[in-house]
Specification:
By secondary structure, the chain is mainly alpha-helical. It has one domain (about 1-135). It has helices at about 1-35, 50-55, 100-135, and strands spanning about 45, 80-85.
């Protein structure tokens, strides 16, 4: 049973860590949009969480892919690719940030971040129990 749990933790923890990194990058992008809501010609940006996480993992064996120097790697900090966020209407000054939409995205992203941290916390609890049982 311990071997099975160990294998599960080995395969899921890196994915959860990458999810946290990507959600943090998305939080930074949304925060930048909010900070520039009144900046003329500023165009809102976002991080496509699904696309970036899919790029990070090979679905077949859960290992990192890096086929291009511009791709993310699994060693350290990730640089997520930003995409244009066209959710807001472009105002006469060229800015397309809708503060209400961005605040909603920020709240949603914060909830997702909290969910992943809770999963990691539960995994660490399982790991702690495994260590405690192994030392008996």
């Amino acid at each position: 049973m311990t071997d099975l749990l160990s294998k599960i933790l080995e395969r899921t923890t890196p994915g959860l860590e990458k999810a946290l990194d990507l959600q943090w990058r998305r939080h930074e992008a949304i925060s930048s949009n909010i900070a520039n809501a009144e900046t003329p010609m500023y165009r809102a940006v976002d991080v496509s969480f699904e696309n970036e996480l899919t790029r990070a993992f090979d679905q077949s064996d859960n290992t990192m892919l890096k086929t291009n120097s511009k791709h993310m790697d699994g060693s350290g900090s990730m640089t997520a690719h930003t995409i244009g966020d066209l959710s807001g209407v472009t105002k006469p000054d060229g800015n397309n940030v809708d503060i209400d939409i961005q605040m909603g995205k920020l709240a949603y992203n914060s909830g997702q971040y909290t969910n992943v941290t809770n999963l990691l916390r539960k995994q660490m609890g399982v790991l702690r129990r495994m260590i405690t049982e192994a030392s008996r």
